[in-house]
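User: As part of a screening pipeline, I want to sanity-check one entry by hand. Below is the sequence and the SMILES for 2-oxoglutaric acid. Please return the complex as structure tokens so I can compare it with the automated output.
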Amino acid sequence: MMADLLAGLEPPPAAREEIGPGALLLRGWALPRVDTLLAGVVEVAAQAPFRHMVTPGGFQMSVAMTNCGQAGWVTDRGGYRYAANDPATDRPWPALPPAFSDLAGAAAHEAGYPGFAPDACLINRYEPGARLTLHQDKDERYQGHPIVSVSLGLPAVFQFGGLKRADPIRRVSLAHGDVVVWGGPSRLFHHGILPLKEGLHPQLGATRINLTLRRAL
Ligand SMILES: O=C(O)CCC(=O)C(=O)O
Ligand SMILES: [Mn+2]
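Assistant: Here is the complex for your manual check:
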């Protein structure tokens, strides 16, 4: 009877999935806090608007970015770095909304990294076609802290490789409310986002927002 009822149904996606050593995908983990997180994004962007930064090589990034916290990740012809002030306004970045740090601390704890207290959040805004090529997060002063990454809006394909650029790459679909935490042995693993597919999300329209919470200083 039960088997009949279940026949033909896809198994639900696992709530927690190990996507690498020390790397965990927590599906839907941020869903109960989405509205608060989005209010935080609106508040930050009102003070530090999203912008398309330029890589050291002179290419404009397809992802629009802004930051909050004690330091913000920036790129220009001079290189990649963390800056205390927003170069667009020369004012300090907006403060990290408590909802961002609370969620990051709780998700990191859940993934086996207790005591994580981020001081920086890079906010990425993707529109269809935007992508982030394979890279490592390595501009932080000390890489002993994990990375907590929250996905909101349109789904995306996350690439998660290894320490070497040429290592095999796993592709993971990230949906609204999903949280990925990586640290320890995978802290410096290469990762990226494939070009965002067209779509309309009920809350965010043709947009994906990603919060990348880090300890930068
Ligand atoms: O958008 C994402 O899910 C990844 C963002 C990322 O890797 C970064 O901002 O360094
Ligand atoms: Mn990254």
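Points to compare against the pipeline: The mean pLDDT is 95. Residues 122, 124, 132, 137, 149, 151, 158, 191, 193, 210, 212 surround 2-oxoglutaric acid (ligand 1) (CB under 6 Å).
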